[in-house]
Specification:
Number of strands: 0
Number of helices: 17
Order of helices and strands: HHHHHHHHHHHHHHHHH
Largest sheet: none
Number of domains: 1
Shape: globular
Helix content: over 70%
Radius of gyration: 20 Å
Distance between the termini: 62 Å
């Protein structure tokens, strides 16, 4: 059903510019993963008429221009501003602290989700069949990562669970949790003697997988079919903070704005442009997202956000503190097998053999 747009887009350019600034600088609630709280099969979602966006809508065109302009500016700044994001040899002490912290955060998240009967992310139930068996593997992986014993085995189990999820549930669901695969490989590669080669590849994987995960979440939860996001905004009206600051900002427009911002963040990480600034901004928003649910009197939602976001926060902390890792050109030089797309486990064993 094509929605009437005459009143919705009144004063749109000014509202969009204000929304862009507030969403990037202070709109923490838009970072909530919609599917963690509203399933696609929810009766309210199924009863809602289609709300799909079209490429000819003024809001879509404006957000496309904003996204392209932001990426162009980031590319320009990356080429002209001194940037240390590509440092390949951070101190061993700093790397050790970050590695242990990220390992603990990832382990605690997947262990808690396994206990709750969720596979890797809060929206993925695993009640029967192979996925239910994978819950035990996920629980063991989480326990190993938390206690710091058998980290290689724990990371390998996490990779196995992710592959099983991909085969069973499809690519879209797997890509939304791709950051967990990147973190598992980070645990494997970064502990291989902590050389510059292994660490730079691990940092590249963390950054790229997180970027793909953010873009996938934006597309599947907000941009391609915003009905679940609209139901979420109806149930949590305070999330649309644009209405609180006096803007005529509909929930449909807010969902588009939130999805576009997530695509921008994901693309910046994926391209490796101004990654430390991007990680710092997104990390702040994720932390404020939990604060919002606590202040709003939603402790259950705050707990779900905290558990689900722990690995993402860990990945952002890795990028913020240790840098973006190698570029694609450096990757081809450092590890031809990674650039050729060979399996992660084979890459890990080759790195270990070269370091020995």
């Amino acid at each position: 059903m094509q929605l009437a747009t005459s009143s919705c887009w009144h004063g749109l350019p000014r509202s969009l510019l204000l929304g862009f600034g507030l969403t990037l600088c202070g709109g923490a609630p838009v970072r909530a993963h919609v599917k963690w709280f509203v399933d696609d099969g929810d009766p309210a979602v199924m009863a809602m008429a289609p709300q799909n966006y079209t490429l000819t809508e003024p809001a879509v065109l404006l957000w496309t221009a904003i996204a392209l302009s932001t990426l162009a500016l980031a590319w320009w700044l990356q080429r002209r501003v001194a940037d240390t994001s590509s440092d390949l040899q951070p101190s061993h002490e700093r790397h050790g602290i970050v590695s242990h912290g990220v390992t603990l955060a990832t382990g605690a998240s997947v262990l808690a989700l396994a206990y709750a009967g969720k596979l890797l992310v809060p929206c993925m139930p695993a009640e029967v069949g192979l996925l239910h068996l994978m819950l035990y593997a996920q629980g063991i992986a989480g326990a190993l990562l938390v206690v710091g014993f058998g980290l290689g085995a724990g990371a390998a189990l996490l990779v196995m669970v992710w592959i099983c999820l991909t085969v069973t549930m499809g690519v879209a669901d797997a890509l939304s949790s791709l950051h967990l695969l990147g973190l598992a490989v980070f645990v494997l590669l970064s502990r291989s003697g902590r050389t510059a080669q292994g660490l730079s590849i691990a940092l590249w994987l963390v950054r790229v997988t997180l970027g793909i995960s953010l873009i996938t979440a934006a597309l599947t939860e907000k941009l391609l079919d915003p009905r679940a996001a609209l139901v979420f905004l109806q149930r949590y009206p305070g999330v649309n903070f644009m209405q609180d600051v006096g803007c005529d900002y509909s929930n449909r427009l807010f969902a588009l704005s939130a999805g576009a911002c997530e695509v921008i963040f994901g693309a910046l990480l994926l391209c490796g442009w101004m990654t430390r600034a991007t990680a710092a901004g997104l990390l702040t928003l994720l932390l404020l997202s939990n604060v919002y649910f606590v202040v709003a009197g939603c402790p259950h939602e705050a707990l779900v956000e905290a558990v689900g976001h722990l690995p993402i926060i860990g990945a952002l902390a890795v990028t913020l503190i240790l840098g973006r890792g190698c570029s694609l050109t450096q990757l081809r030089t450092l590890m031809p097998t990674v650039a050729m797309g060979l399996p992660v486990v084979r890459t890990w064993w080759r790195v270990r053999r070269l370091e020995r």
